[in-house]
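Page 37, top half.
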Amino acid sequence: MKRQKIKKIIYKSIPLWMVIVIILQSSTLVGLVEYYIMQRNINIALAQLAQTTKNPEELVKILTQKVMPQKGYTLAVVWNDIGQQLMRTGVIDKQKYDQMFSQDPGDANMMKYLSTSSHDHMIINEANSHFMVNTLWGLGLVNKNQILEEGPMQTEGPKDPMQFASTGGWTLGTKSTSDLYSSTPLIELTDKQEDLVKEISSNIYRPCCGNSVAFPDCNHGMAALGYIELAVKQGISEKRIYQDVLALNSFWFPQQYVSVATFFSQQKKDWDSLDPKMLLSAQYSSAQGAAQIQQQIQNIPGIATQQGGCGA
């Protein structure tokens, strides 16, 4: 019954002619406009169902679609030649990437961005999340940055930045990680931009660790740092950067963010109305925060209890 209700609302909200236009003109501005209108109507329908359904398992399915849209999420930054630059620095070994990603169609389709310059926006979805976390990880690792040279990676922990998961775990380059670490100014930032990267990074956490992105000791933290640097360089607004990193985190840690969405749904708060900066704070996105959220909703059917780790 609930599934039929979803279909009924979506069919009512999305006229057949709109679907046809999108299919026939997906590469045109008209097609893009119609697509976003359709997506908005779907989100409205899902929000209404999330507020009215009394079936917990159905609610989790609805929230999963809101947190991780089936079509994926389009990030604000564009690729340009960043993939080619990563190849030139040696942080990415093409042969190793081929071995790791060529078997999965979703990841294999992304390989083109390593060899050509493109004005395409980066996209994160279930099929390419593995490729994206690794590629952004490599970017954060190799880009010369004050956070890596002066921040907690140098002053906390074992005092040797090569002993963290984000450094010791990198095996996809043609050079040693010690030679790659903060070695190449791929993303040259002004002092003001560097300060903005530090501020944003200090406010963003991930469920596998208790540290902010300003202490990128794991692969997801280093990947988020790479994205933030690139977004600041391209002039993306601070608000949008938080929104984008929330999308990245959500596809990298789906169980945790569906849990957060469920927690707020119990308070009659829709996922799309929540502040991404708040959701990325230690209260909700650190390992400790995620564990506390999990405890509060652990008895809801359909909610997974496994916590995310730092594995790629």
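Page 37, bottom half:
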Amino acid sequence: MAVNAEQVKELRNATGAGILDCKKALEEAAGDFDKAGEILRKRNQATAVKKMSREAREGRVAVYLHGEGRIGVLVEVNCETDFVARSEVFNQFVKEVCLQVAAMSPVAVSREDLPADLVEKQKEIFAAQVADQKKPPEIVARIIEGKMSKWYAEACLLDQTYIRDETKKVRDLLTEVVGRTGENVRIRRFARYELGEGL
């Protein structure tokens, strides 16, 4: 099926994918906009998996101040080349990561980055909460597992719901950026400070 330039432009605006990628996806989806978007998402995920093993030493360290200096965020995001590090797509992603960290206060980038003692402590807290419910051990284990999943979704940046679009996780946003830049992109680390925190 032939697609027109307006359809390609609309899909490009919605996904940020390249013009040729949008055209191919629309042709493959026989003009179905939603299906074309799904095709592009799957391609981006496949691209992200391929690129994950590649070295990402370039990138950017960004600073973000919110609320007249009440919250400060420092973020390092890496990519493979300085060309991508200077691109608008990459820099917009870094800005979004800063906003996400400021708004949602994650503990770590991913589950793997969480301190083991913190994870164990959280499991103990959830186990204590369900200890008096007199349920079979396998049910208690599933309840604790469910509570841990919710906790990971709050504590881990990549598992958090993206603040600008509730249908996406930050991990999905990262996958889109990898697809758009054609390079491995990774959020390496962050620090968040809030005025009076810990006093």
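Margin note: The helical segments are 5-15, 19-28, 33-51, 82-85, 88-104, 116-130, 137-155, 170-181.
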